[in-house]
Design goal:
This protein is of the alpha+beta class. The chain is built from two helices and five strands, in the order E-H-E-E-E-H-E. The chain has one domain (3-79): Roll (SH3 type barrels). It is 18% helix and 32% strand. Keywords: Iron.
């Protein structure tokens, strides 16, 4: 599962960053999207769901769905 598909308010653990443009990967890592960190989607925009408001650790960010799709989560994320 990827972050863009995570149900609202469900917590998950980041597994890795999938293949994406190098500047996106670097920016996501700089924001704290690193393996082992806890993440959750707090809100989605009404039309089209873009952007997403996500929390990683104690910080909140707005991400485009395409960026969130680069964040792979542990396989048991839906069970949490």
């Amino acid at each position: 599962m990827t972050l863009d598909r995570l149900p609202l308010r469900l917590r998950a653990t980041i597994r890795h960053l999938q293949e994406a443009p190098a500047d996106w990967q670097r920016a996501l890592q700089d924001l704290g999207f690193v393996p082992g960190e806890t993440v959750q989607v707090l809100r989605r925009a009404a039309l089209g769901g873009d952007p997403l408001v996500v929390q990683v650790g104690a910080s909140r960010f707005a991400l485009r769905r395409a960026e969130a799709a680069c964040v792979a989560l542990d396989g048991d994320a839906a069970a949490r």
